[in-house]
Design brief:
The chain is an alpha+beta fold and 97 residues long. The chain has one domain. It contains 2 helices and 5 strands; from the N terminus they run αβββαββ. It is elongated, with a radius of gyration of 17 Å. The protein starts with a helix and ends with a strand.
């Protein structure tokens, strides 16, 4: 039983948690500015920053692309995480031609 528990803790649990991400809907915050946030858990030693930032920018560009424009960053913020904690990236953007 002890071996099975170790297997769950060291192999299965991190695999399940690696896909644990939360993202917000796109919010219209004021005068053509939109906000989008995504949170992801950092499981291993590798950084999650690149994947979160890329995912948020892809979603912003998809949103703006529906009107034939693209997302332009107004400001952003990244809250990094240590292993086993959540990292959060927030993007405020405008749709530009």
């Amino acid at each position: 039983m002890d071996r099975a528990l170790k297997l769950i803790v060291f192999l299965i649990f991190p695999a399940l948690m690696s896909g644990c991400d939360v993202h917000s809907d796109i919010a219209d915050i004021s005068g053509g500015e939109y906000m989008l946030t995504e949170t992801d858990m950092k499981v291993g030693v590798g950084a999650v920053r690149a994947s979160i930032v890329s995912s948020v920018h892809d979603r912003a560009n998809s949103f703006c692309g529906a009107t034939g424009s693209r997302a332009a960053k107004v400001r952003d913020a990244f809250e990094n995480a240590s292993i086993g904690k959540f990292a959060t990236y927030t993007l405020v953007f405008r749709c530009t031609s």
